[in-house]
Amino acid sequence: MTPRSDAGNGAGRSLELDRVTQRYPSSTNDTTEFVAMQDISLEIPAGQFVSVVGPTGCGKSTMLSAISGLRPASDGQVRIGGEVVTGIRSDVGFIFQQDALLPWRTALQNVELSLRFRGRPKSESRERAREWLARVGLLDFADRYPHQLSGGMRKRVAVASTLVYEPDILLMDEPFSALDIQTRTLMENDLLHVWDEAGKNTVLFVTHDLEEAIGMSDRILVLTASPGRLLGDYKIDLPRPRDLLEVKMTEEFTELYRAIWKDLEGEVLAANKLRIPDAVGN
Amino acid sequence: MRKRWLNRSATLVLVVAFFVVWQYAGQANVANKLTIGTPAEVFRWIGDWSSGTYTDGWSDLWTTLQEALLGYLLGTVVGVSLAVLIAGVDVLARLVMPFVAAANAVPKIAMAPLFVLAFGTTVACKAYFVSSLVVFISFFAVFNGLRSINRRYLDHVQILGASRWWTVREVYVPAIVGWLITSLRLSWSWSLAAAVFVEYLSSNEGMGHIVQSGQESLDAATVIGALMIIAVVAVCVDAGLVLVERRAKEWRPA
Amino acid sequence: MSTTRLNRVGSGWALLLARTALVVVVVALWQVAADQEWVNANFFSSPSDVWHSLGSLSASGDLWRALESTVVVLAIGWVLGELAGLALGIAIGLSKRLNDIIGPIIVFANAVPRILLLPIFVVWYGFGYEPKVLLVVAVMVVFVALNVAAGVREVDGLLVQNMRVHGANAFDLLRHVFFPAVSLWVTSSARVTVGYALQATIGSELLGAESGLGSLISHGQVSFRSDQIIAVLLVAAALAVSVDLLLATLERRAVRWMPKT
C-alpha cells in the first residue's frame, strides 16, 4: 500500500488511464483469457463527476477495480494526481454494488472503521463518525446492525463510511441499482448534496441507468460490449445544483439522452446477442 | 393463548403418564425390576448419591466434568490453531485436506480403547481422549468459517485502509469466533459423552464408572439414575450455551 | 488468503505425487519412531506390526466376519432410524399441535448425548444385535425427525398453492410435493446420517459385543495389542471413507436437477 497521505482535503485529484487493459484467465481452462477492458485511455480533471455507462459485461466494474488497486491492470498505467497506482491507495474511496458493510458491526462502528485504521484516536473517530451519520440523516440508527436497516439506509451508511476519510477519488459501482426506483431518486439527490458539501472530489460513477448518469454527472463515458473500449465521451452542461426529478423534464436532458442512447443501444443489443432491427419487412 | 396452555399441559400429562407406566411396569415382576427399575427406586438412588451415602457422591460428577472441560479446552485450542494454520497456507490446505477428511472418517469413539491401553486411566488421559474428538469439530468449524469469508468484506476493509493486522482483527477474528460459538454446543455434548464413555470402558472413578458398576451388578436404578444426572447436566449447560449463542449472534439477520 | 490462487497451485499429477510422498514419509517416520522407541509403543505401535496384524486378522477370517456384522447392523439400524425419524418428523412437521406437544420433549432428548443410552440397552438386551441397532436408531431418530420436520414446514407454500389450484388433493400433495422434498433431504443428508450410524454401530460394539469391528478393537484392548486396535481402526476408516464416496456419487446423480445454490 502506498504511504498514507491524509492530505485529502476532499477537493479531489486528477485521474488518468493510459492504455489500460485488463485480462482474466478463463474459468474453464487455463489457456484462453477473457479480455474485460482493452486499451482504455482517458483523462479526468480534479473535481469532475464522471459516469461510465455500457452494457453488461463491458468492463465497467473492472475499470474501478483497476483504479482502486484491488485488481491491478494487466497492461497500461493508472495515474492519480500524476502518481502511478501500484496498489491499494488510501486516497481512494469505493462503494460496492452489493452490501459490504461488516454485518457484525453497528452502523456507527462501520463508519469509524476507516479512521481507526488510519490511527486516529477512538474518541475522535467516534466524533467524526457521528458527524457523518448525521449528515446522511442516520444518527438515530447509529447502534443498529446492518440487517436491521433497510437497503437505502445501508447505502447511506456505506456512503458515510467512505466519505468520512475524505478520499480524493470516489469510485462507485452501480451503488443504487439494488434499490427501488423511488428510493433511488432520493439517494441520487442526497449523494449530489453530500458531494457538494464535502467539496466535490473526483467521482467515477458506474451505472447502467442512462437517466441516472445524465442527471448526476458532468461527463459521460460510453463503453462497448466486451472487450470494453471507449466508444463515446459526452459533456453534460446542465447547471448545478440539480434536482434529479426536475432536471429530467428539461429539453436539454432529453436531447442528451437521445444522442447518447444511439451509441449505447448498439452495444446493449450486441451484448445481448440481438441484431438491430432492420426496416419493416425483416 | 389458551391453545398454548392446552398443549403445554398435554406435554406434562405425557411425561407424567410415562413415569406412571414405568412405575407399574417395573413393579409387575421381578425380572422387570431388575432390567428397567422403577422411578421410585431411581429417585431414591439419586437422593442417596447426592447425600453421599453409598458412593463419593459429587466428586464423581466433578471428575467427569473435569475431563470433559479439560478435553474441550485442549481440543478447541489445537483445532483452532490447526485450522488457522492450514487455512492460511493454500498449498498446505490442498495437500493435507483429504488426509484430514480420512482421519475424520475414523469412528473416533472407537479410539477410546487405544487411549486407555496407552495412557491408563488418569483424569488427564481421559481428557486427551475427549480432546481428540473436539479437535475435529472445532477444526472444521473454524476452517470452513475462514474459507467462507466473503471476498467483498476483505476488499471493503482494504479500501478503507486496513493493514494486515486490522484485517485480521476486523474480519477474520469475528468470523472465527462466530463459527466457534456455533460449534460450541456440538463440542460440549460430545465432550461430556466421550468423558462418560471412556470412564465406562475402564475407570474407577467418574460417572461412567458408576454406570458400569451398576450394570455389572444388574442394578438398573444405579444405571438409570447416574445417566439421568448426566443428562440433566448436559441439558443445563446446553441451555446456557444457547443463551451465549443467541447473544453472540445478535448481528445475524433472522 | 486468496482463493483465486488456489486453482493454480499444483494441479492434477503434481498434487497426487505430493500426497503420495507425504504418506510415504509419514509411514517411514512412524516406523523409525517406533523402532527407536521415541514414542509410546502402546499408543502408536509400528507400521510393520499393524500390517502383520491386519494380515493375520484377514487370514483367520475374523476381520471379514466382523466387517460383515458391522455393515449389517449399520444397514438395518440406518434404515430403521430413517423410517422412525421420517415418521416422527413428518407427523410433527404437518401437525402444529403435535409439534407443540412433543416438541419440548424432543428438544430435551436432543441435548442428551444419546450414546449414554447404550448401557441401558445392554442391561435390557444383553450383548446381541438388539442394543446395537437400538442405539443406532436412537442416535439418528432425533436428528432425522427435527430436520424432516423443518423440511416439511419449509416446503414452498407457493408450490402447494399452485398444485391446489390445479386440483390436487391431500394424497396428491403428499406424493408430488412432500415425498420428493423429503427424499431429497434423505439423500442429501445420507452422508451425515450414515456417519452418525457408523459411529453408533462401532461404539456399541466396543462394549463387550460378540461381533463387529468394535468387538475386535475391544479384544485388542483386553489383550494389550495396540497393533490390532490400530489395524481395525484403519479398516473402519476405510469403510467409512468408501461408504462416504459411494454416497457422494449417488447423491450427485440424484440431485442433478437442483440449481447450484
Specify the helix fraction band of chain B: over 70%
* Total number of strands of chain B: 0
Q: Can you tell me the residue ranges of chain B where pLDDT is under 50 for at least 5 consecutive residues? A: none
| Radius of gyration of chain A, whole Å | 19 Å
* Top CATH class of the largest domain in chain A: Alpha Beta
Helical segment count of chain A: 8
Report the CATH architecture of the largest domain in chain A: 3-Layer(aba) Sandwich
| Count of beta strands of chain A | 10
Q: Give the helix proportion of chain A (percent range).
A: 25-40%
Quaternary state reads heterotrimer
Biggest sheet layout of chain A: 6 strands, mixed
Question: What can you see in these coordinates?
Answer:
- The complex is a heterotrimer of chains A (282), B (254) and C (261).
- Chain A has 282 residues and is an alpha/beta fold.
- Chain A has eight helices and ten strands.
- Chain A is globular and about 50 Å long.
- Chain B has eleven helices and no strands.
- In chain B, helix 4 runs antiparallel to helix 9 and helix 9 runs parallel beside helix 10.
- Chain B is globular.
- Chain B starts with a helix and ends in a 6-residue tail after the last helix.
- The mean pLDDT of chain B is 84.
- Chain C is built from eleven helices and no strands.
- Chain C is globular.
- The N terminus of chain C is likely disordered.
- Chains in contact: A-B, B-C.
List keywords for this structure.
heterotrimer; A: 282 residues; alpha/beta; Rossmann fold; 2 domains; 6-stranded mixed β-sheet; 4-stranded antiparallel β-sheet; globular; disordered N terminus; disordered C terminus; B: 254 residues; mainly alpha; 0% strand
What's this, in brief?
By secondary structure, chain A is an alpha/beta fold.
How is the secondary structure organized here?
The complex is a heterotrimer of chains A (282), B (254) and C (261).
Chain A: E1 15-25, E2 33-44, E3 49-53, H1 60-68, E4 75-80, E5 83-84, E6 92-95, H2 107-117, H3 122-135, H4 151-163, E7 169-173, H5 181-197, E8 202-206, H6 210-216, E9 219-223, E10 230-235, H7 244-247, H8 251-271
Parallel strand pairs in A: 3-8, 3-9, 6-7, 7-8
Antiparallel strand pairs in A: 1-2, 1-4, 4-5, 9-10
Chain B: H1 2-28, H2 30-35, H3 39-51, H4 58-88, H5 90-105, H6 112-119, H7 123-147, H8 151-159, H9 164-201, H10 207-216, H11 220-248
Helix pairs in contact in B: 3-11, 4-7, 4-9, 6-7, 7-9, 9-10, 9-11, 10-11
Chain C: H1 13-35, H2 41-44, H3 47-60, H4 62-94, H5 96-111, H6 118-125, H7 129-154, H8 157-165, H9 170-206, H10 213-222, H11 226-254
Helix pairs in contact in C: 3-11, 4-5, 4-7, 4-9, 4-10, 6-7, 7-9, 9-10, 9-11, 10-11
